Amino acid sequence: MSNHILFLLADGFEETECVAPYDILIRGGVKVSLASIHTDPFVEGAHGLTIRADALLSELDPSLYSGIFLPGGGRGVENLRNSQAVQETVRSFMGAGKWVTAICAAPIVLAAAGVLHDKRVTSYPSTEPDIRSYCKSYSQDRVVVDGKLVTSRGPGSAEEFGLQLLALLEGKDKSEDVRKGMVAR
């Protein structure tokens, strides 16, 4: 299966954490689909940017994707965590050994889904107490990879997160080519 990552979007998502990894993965040749967890394809970010999702999560077959991505953002994470469909999707992807990726506060969604018990993770600093007791170990590294689970700290690490994820999906050479083309650090 070629890599096809499903971005789960909820009202209140952190724009930088969504757009930077999306752009990096697309530049690297990874297919990305945006799914609204709501009944409307238009999803409003935490700072007013509205994105039109490709589809509604309720209309999709998760087996067609090689991984999922959950952006942070306080209200967005709350909406993701409160969605039974998101919880089921997270558990399904983890159980199938697919990529599960989350940034900023979004690892709270993974904790709520009960999939972190044997994993090393990171998250936005203020969410550490909410996640620490649900995972094997907590790290303050900017990006943490534990098998097919990838987590990151916040908006400031979104580019690094995207490049790391691209390296995992398509190889270090592809990630380095994209990094150079973007004039990224």
Automatic annotation (TrEMBL):
| Alphabetized InterPro entries for the sequence | C56_PfpI-like, Class_I_gatase-like, DJ-1, DJ-1/PfpI, Prot/Nucl_acid_deglycase
Q: What Gene Ontology cellular-component terms does the record carry?
A: cytoplasm
Domain DJ-1/PfpI, by residue range, is 4-167
**Family annotation (Gene3D superfamilies):** 3.40.50.880
Q: Which SUPFAM superfamilies match?
A: Class I glutamine amidotransferase-like
Q: Which family does it belong to?
A: Belongs to the peptidase C56 family.
Name the record gives this protein: 4-methyl-5(B-hydroxyethyl)-thiazole monophosphate biosynthesis
